Amino acid sequence: MIDEIKISRAIIDTYSKKLIDHLSVDVAIAGAGPSGMVCAYYLAKKGKKVAIFERKLSVGGGMWGGGIMFNEIVVQAQAKKILDEFGIRSRLWENGYYLADSIEATATLCAQALKAGAAIFNCMSAEDVMIRKNRVCGLVLNWTAVEMARLHVDPITMRASYVVDGTGHDAQIVHIVENKSGIRLKTKTGRAAGEGSMWAEIAEATTVKNTGEVAPGLYVCGMCANAAFGGPRMGPIFGGMLLSGKKAAEELLKKL
């Protein structure tokens, strides 16, 4: 016999325990795009407690769609080692350009991050941050459905030794910090520099270069790094995203 109430209890009990267990972590990542999932993978692989909070139902950011919904992505030679480590198949196109199936790439990044020990909570938005002694030390969370419906429902708070903004072009956590906390960002102007028009060659380099701490306790990776420190967008080439996620993890591992 299948008991619908037992099914409901199993889901509610298990999810509640998982969420409670991740209200205090080493690293909280906002955004389950490719850079966020790569960052989580390398941190969890080293035994760090990591939680990703993704506002959408699905993970992967723009990687699912490849370019104009042609589900192929390009990765340059420098990042192919990450594809290989994750077990994502790729094939040489020409002159150091490698192609990968965007569906396989996204699904594999997610699966490997989870298998490494990271937790992913989808349909959850970070609507604010927790700051103590002028340092980012947690996220304020609510259901995305609450946000979309504009319901007056209070959020919950979780604590993290470090927070990573992996929210892509929007740089949502960075903007919350600069607009609400009074903290001066570690950019030239003290505020988010903003993202420029597409220039893949420059963007791939600056995405990795700009990855790092943008405010005390807050790191940026992926397209959020260019939105914070300034740099163009890159389009459907994802090597910089993967390398950025790995760099963020490596820098955080030195601090933890």
UniProtKB/TrEMBL annotation:
Residues binding glycine, per UniProt: R233
Residue positions binding Fe cation: D154, H169
Subunit and interaction comment: Homooctamer; tetramer of dimers.
Protein name as catalogued: Thiamine thiazole synthase
One GO MF term: pentosyltransferase activity
Superkingdom of origin organism: Bacteria
Residues making up the signal peptide according to the UniProt record: none
Function statement: Involved in the biosynthesis of the thiazole moiety of thiamine. Catalyzes the conversion of NAD and glycine to adenosine diphosphate 5-(2-hydroxyethyl)-4-methylthiazole-2-carboxylate (ADT), an adenylated thiazole intermediate, using free sulfide as a source of sulfur.
InterPro entries from the UniProt entry: FAD/NAD-bd_sf (IPR036188), Thi4_fam (IPR002922), Thi4_prok (IPR022828)
